[in-house]
Amino acid sequence: MRYSWVDGRLSTVVPVDDRGLNYADGAFETLLCRDGNITCLSLHEARLSRALLALKFEAPQLQAQQVFEEAGQCLLQVKHSGIARLTVTRGSGPRGYAPSRSATPRYILTASAHPDHKSSPWRCGIATTKWQDQPQLAGLKLLARTEQVLAAQEAAAQGWDDVLMLDDQERVISSSRGNILLLKGKTILTPLLDRSGIAGTRRQLLVGSVLPKLGYRVDVRPVTIPDVLTADALMISNTVVGAVAVKSVNQHVYLGYENSFCPIKDELGEHIS
Fold first, then answer.
1. pLDDT of 20-53, one tens digit each?
2. Under 8 Å CB-to-CB from 138, ≥6 apart: which residues?
């Protein structure tokens, strides 16, 4: 069953003067829920707080905390298991880019079943759509996701499961659907996200806890296409799929991709269970 709430009340209506709709003035978090409980709650709350701070919301940390408390109550009431999206906008406001000082933030929560997705290794291409360089907003999950929308269209048109996305310096930043991690022996290489891209909660969990526990060395630095094509294996992570191995990028096939990430996927599952 699908549910939606606006400011804690069951509703499917958002005012047409909402600044999230008109100016993408807000941020969101995609959440995995089990029996109404949000997994990786602290990581999502912290990232939302950083996003609201970057957007200059008043008391961003308190705002994020209150929103998650209220959203959590809604999800617990219906004992939701599946995916939820929590969106925080500046709220309603007059025409014009500059927000009103009296604007009251609005939050929109939707809950739906976990979508069917291909759990077997993905076939990927490389998108022509590039990530924009914006260090002030890098790593945050803000409402404007135009680059990923265009890249996802490219993947669908080519029949790929996903596409890798680069920046204007030809550095690999992510896929259209999640963060990427490259396996090279006992080292995991993942892109530096200081100028573009989204720093995913599952990536944070992997880099900060799962991979060190399993004895991997983590290298966070700029990644190139040659890095991708010379890796032993490639994995994509996000909230919805957790982690999935990549079978191929364009014509390049990863040998032994099926088993390379099994221990990592299993350990990640343990951390979010």
1. 999 999 999 999 999 999 999 999 999 999 999 9
2. 193, 194, 195, 196, 197
**Contact status, residue 6 vs residue 108, Cβ threshold 8 Å:** yes
pTM exceeding 0.90: yes
Alpha-carbon gap, residue 198 to 191, rounded angstroms: 11
Edge-to-edge strands of the sheet including 26-34?
A: 9-10, 3-6, 106-112, 82-89, 26-34, 37-38
- In contact, 17 and 90? CB cutoff 8 Å: no
User: Residue ranges per domain, the chain?
Assistant: 3-112, 122-272
Integer Cα distance of 75 and 186 in angstroms: 40
In this predicted model, what pLDDT tens digit does every residue of 217-267 receive, in sequence order? Answer: 999 999 999 999 999 999 999 999 999 999 999 999 998 766 677 888 888
CATH architecture of 3-112: 2-Layer Sandwich (3.30)
| Tokens read off for 97 | 């880019």
Residue 58: how many CB atoms within 10 A of its CB?
Answer: 10
How many residues are listed for the chain in this entry?
273
| CA pair distance 105, 107, nearest whole angstrom | 7
| Cβ(268)–Cβ(202) below 8 Å | yes
User: Coil, strand or helix: which one is 244?
Assistant: strand
Collect all residues with Cβ–Cβ distance below 8 Å to 98 and sequence separation of at least 6. Answer: none
Which residues, in sequence order, are CB contacts of 190 under 8 Å at separation 6+? Answer: 179, 180, 181, 182, 203, 207, 218, 219, 220, 223
The proportion of the chain whose per-residue pLDDT surpasses 70, expressed as a percent, equals 97
Classify domain 122-272 by CATH number: 3.20.10.10
